[in-house]
Amino acid sequence: MIITYKKLPKNFSAKKLKFFYDEATPGKTFRQCGSIIKYSSVIIGAFDKNALIGIGRALDDNVYAFLTDILVKPEYRKKGIGAEIVKMLCNWLVKKGIKIIHCSTDKKLAPFYKSAAGLEYNPNNITLFLKNF
Ligand SMILES: CC(C)(COP(=O)(O)OP(=O)(O)OC[C@H]1O[C@@H](n2cnc3c(N)ncnc32)[C@H](O)[C@@H]1OP(=O)(O)O)[C@@H](O)C(=O)NCCC(=O)NCCS
Question: Taking 90 as the threshold, does the pLDDT of residue 65 lie above it?
Fold first, then answer.
């Protein structure tokens, strides 16, 4: 199996992105997928031939960045694909001059982010979030 990685272009199909989310973790609307493509600073996609099988994305303001939606289709997990996506995202952000990259995640995934791109777990930080629905 040959997996290729690329930064998704701004004209990437929202339909294709929705197809991926629907298979990996349902819940995103077509409109949200369009918005994700438009407003994400960068989306790295992993492809098996032409099929999108993993993504990771970031939002940034040239000072701080926030990683989100790091997601690999279940049947492709544990093959190093997620780590490659996180590494490419962080490299892209660091190249852009970003100094601090945030990522909110489950505690048990901290080693994954550490080994993928050196992201450090800070036990003194907590993440607060508001679910507005
Ligand atoms: C998290 C996720 C992206 C990892 O992708 P992946 O392609 O399976 O990860 P990799 O194969 O690159 O794993 C890299 C390392 O992290 C470890 N790892 C991966 N998933 C893990 C998990 N759920 N718990 C603990 N460790 C994990 C692997 O064992 C591997 O360690 P190793 O290098 O010592 O062998 C994938 O499991 C996923 O899509 N999960 C559901 C969505 C999710 O939780 N995303 C994170 C939101 S913050």
Answer: yes
Amino acid at 89: L
pTM: predicted TM-score of the whole model, two decimal places:
0.94
Q: Residue whose CA is closest, atom 4 of ligand 1?
A: 82
Closest CA to ligand 1's atom 15: 112
For residue 77, give both structure tokens.
């997990």
Residue 83 CA: which ligand 1 atom is closest?
A: 12
Q: What atom in ligand 1 is closest to the CA of residue 73?
A: 39
Instruction: Give all strands of the β-sheet with 42-48 in edge-to-edge order.
Output: 3-7, 42-48, 51-60, 64-72, 100-103
Q: Which atom number of ligand 1 is nearest to the Cα of residue 67?
A: 48
Domains of the chain, first to last: 3-117 (3.40.630.30)
Tens digit of each residue's pLDDT (9 = 90 or more) over 28-54: 999 999 999 999 999 999 999 999 999
Decide whether any atom of ligand 1 lies within 6 Å of the 108 Cβ: yes
Q: Which two tokens stand for residue 117?
A: 């791109």
Tens digit of pLDDT for each residue in 95-113?
999 999 999 999 999 999 9
**Average model confidence (pLDDT) across the chain:** 96
